[in-house]
Amino acid sequence: MKRVLTILLAALGLNAAILYAVLWQGQVHLYEENELIENLQAVCYIGATFFTLWALLQLKGFERWLAGVFTFANVAFFLREVDVAEMDIAPMVNFFFGGMSKDILMTLVFLALVARFAVAFRHHLREFWQIVRSRISLLVIGGCLLLALGSFCEEVEMPFMEELAELNGALLIMTAAFFYALSPRELTAKVATHPGWSESRPVRVKPVTLS
Known about the structure:
The protein is mainly α. About 70% of the residues lie in helices and about 0% in strands.
């Protein structure tokens, strides 16, 4: 609870500082492309990626797959915010993470994750409702809703509200990743005690017939 309050107070303080700087001091450049607010979003997604990777290294089976999905989402959010093609970086990195190559690479990784689930973990499909109701999942869902709000603000040409909503969405997602790193098995805590739960593929036992 103390961690939650600390994070909440920090987020409120950050929002208050940004609102004061933009609305009272007129520093409108803060919400322009590649400026402070957008860069803070990128930092949040980098932090979230490291948190989920830490969790991934401690897990196995289906739980590791979930951590892989979370990590993939964080990388995708980061690449959405950062235009790698315009950065002064190594040509090889630019080739893989800039422009169409980035879209192809992310699509291939997504399809690999889907294929892995279909082959090895599809028997866990019925447990997703319990996973979605966990604290970590609810924080991620809240973050995604704020990202959707940011997209709506972009459509109606409200750039400051767009960037502020997206920043708070990134903060929620990073918070979820932080709690995930602290307790990697929290996502599956509610389903791990259910009868029939197993991290591995269920074993099919052939019926025995008496002759």
